[in-house]
Amino acid sequence: MKRLLEAELIYGRLLDISEPHLIARYNKALEGFGLRPTGLQRFSIDMTGFSPEIAYELGDHDYLDPNRVNRRFIILTPAQAELPVVHTSFSNTAALMHEFFNANSRAIHAVTIKDALYGEIEDTVSVVKDIDDLLSINEVRFRVLSAEGMLGKATELRELIDRLKKVPNAWADDATLDRMVELARLTGDIRQNALVPDELVFRHQAFWANHFGGVYVFLDEKTTTVICDPSAPGFRRSRPWQVSYIALTDHARIYDFLAATKRLQLPQASWVEESGLFQHRADMAVRGLINEADPDADLVNADRIWLQTWIHRNAALVSRDGIYPFLQEMARAIAATGTVKMQEIAPEQRFLLVRAAPDHPDQWLVNRLISQLVPRDFVSRFVFDKQGFYSAYEGFSETFRDYVVATLTGTYLKDKAAFRHKLYGLKGE
User: Fold this and answer.
1) Does any domain span residue 244?
2) Which of 44, 89, 173, 420 would you label with 52, given CA atoms 20 to 30 Å apart?
């Protein structure tokens, strides 16, 4: 992973923490979780407060995710809202954290001036034993504490203020007034600075969970659809009257489901030619085939002439694999007719030609699933399924790792938003 670290392809864009008061607050949060405090004088954190350096120090990558459910978080600064989530068991952890930050921005800004927030994203289950446990998670509640007790002090001050307003002659109680002054010195004027978060309950929308080899859960108005390995406990047995189950290897049913629910953008010249998606996947396919045939091939310095020469010399292998010539044929069909007749395409090849519908709320989750079904496209896998990418990267040869890192740093990392918009039609950051 050294190359990935140096290129910031893993644990990139994290926030550096080195100020003693922030480290002290982080340690109080760790102690609140029953963990030993860190001895590090500098470490980095993601949006949830996860630190790869502290994970290494504790010898526990899941120190903020102990049962891979009810995720913990530590908020030292509002700036964490702009960070990625680099370690999670649920694909929508980042979305939930964003909702929490957005809904409680005033409180987070006020509290983190003098304190840190920490707690858990509580689900309705404590341990995931089968698919039904995942399906039972309809909403989550943020249980929030503060390292220096700021929330408790603000609540106490609010209660004392209410008592002064409601209890006759309460102003005559010197002990109460002294306590209010003492609390106000710590919390500031809570009439101006809302210290207690306003919104703590959020809906658990469609998600991917890393349990049982990876489970996709899609929610529609009347049905829930689960896509995963059929060996997962509870597959076709958990709530069969209201849940549709699709095996991850059943490309035909996956395609039909995504297309019927309008989660796919089917191939049309209007976006295919502008995006360059077919050419991108053709390039990924042929380079992946070269690596499989010759793991020591130097793809970093391979230009178009070298690639075409390799394709001609290995025509039988390229034809037998089929992906590169298929994509070339589809590009010609799009140029000639403006569309592709998907019903005539073999189910296992359909995902080479589509992307998630850019305006659908499940666009990231659908692109994640597509990237898993098109494994040679390591760029898409990195963008949408980093866990899958890192797992695949472990099996790459040293020379292919060089090529992978060079490709990602030379394309995606240069301008992520522009790259995602061009290739996948995604908007915004």
Assistant:
1) no
2) 420
Residues 154, 256, single domain; the answer is no
For 74-107, what is each residue's pLDDT tens digit?
999 999 999 999 999 999 999 999 999 998 898 8
* 3-class DSSP string for the chain: CHHHHHCCCCCCCCEEECCHHHHHHHHHHHHHCCCCCCCCCCEEECCCCCCHHHHHHHCCCCCCCCCCCCCEEEECCHHHHHCCCCCCCECCHHHHHHHHHHHCHHHHHHHCCCCCEEEEEECCCCCCCCHHHHHCCCEEEEEEEECCCHHHHHHHHHHHHHHHHHCCCHHHCHHHHHHHHHHHHHHCCCCCCCCCCCCCEEECCCEEECHHHCEEEEECCCCEEEEECCCCCCCCCCCCCCEEEEECCCHHHHHHHHHHCCCEECCEHHHHHHHCHHHHHHHHHHHHHHHHHCCCCCCCCCCHHHHHHHHHHCHHHHHHHCHHHHHHHHHHHHHHHCECCHHHCCHHHHCCCCEECCCCCCHHHHHHHHHHHCCCCHHHHHHHCHHHHHHHHCCCCHHHHHHHHHHHHHCHHHCHHHHHHHHHCCCCC
Shared-domain flag, residues 254 and 125: no
Q: Which tops the pLDDT comparison, 356 or 138?
A: 356
Q: Does any domain span residue 212?
A: no
Lowest mean pLDDT among 195-199, 287-291, 358-362: 195-199
Question: In total, how many domains does the chain have?
Answer: 3
Domain that holds residue 420: 250-424
364 and 287 share one domain = yes
